[in-house]
Structures are given as C-alpha cells and as structure tokens.
C-alpha cells in the first residue's frame, strides 16, 4: 500500500458512523479522579486477629456510609481486596478504609 492508499484506508476505518449524526463521546455518570499515595495498610483478609478483622469491617462500613452520605458516591466494587486495615501503631490515623473507586457511581 502506498501513502495515499493508507490514508484512504485509515479514513474508512475510523469513520464508522454517519457524519450527519452528532456523536456524544462523553461518558455518562463518571468522574475521573486520581490520587497518588504510598502503600498503606493491607487487605482485611490479612488482619492479625478476628477482633481486628471485625473492627476493620465495621470501620469500612461506616466509611462507605459516610462516603455516600457526604458525596452521594457509591463505591461499586466492594471486595476483600478493596477493604483495607491499618494495624501500624506508629501511623494509626485510619484504622480501616476503602480503596479503588474506579467503578464508583455518583447518585
């Protein structure tokens, strides 16, 4: 294929919809956020005791409720990988928290 043939071929491939219709490329009900932090905490599955696990689960549920009440955001991907516990005595500001809001929805 020559240069002109390649340009024509790409134009055919990229223009799959009618040029008369206006395309809406904006995703609906999504907010792009990015937070860069250092590693902090571990999955609640790796809690050191049952008491620590249950306390972390309670704190994660309270955090989920607070996230929804204050922002209207639903986490959307609750799993043991996204419920974190912090048992570091030196830095215990948040004993448990939610992560991974990629699939979060705003009501």
From TrEMBL:
Domain Fungal-type protein kinase: 12-106
Superkingdom of the source species: Eukaryota
InterPro entries: Kinase-like_dom_sf (IPR011009), Pkinase_fungal (IPR040976)
A Pfam family assignment: Pkinase_fungal
Signal peptide: none
Protein name: Fungal-type protein kinase domain-containing protein
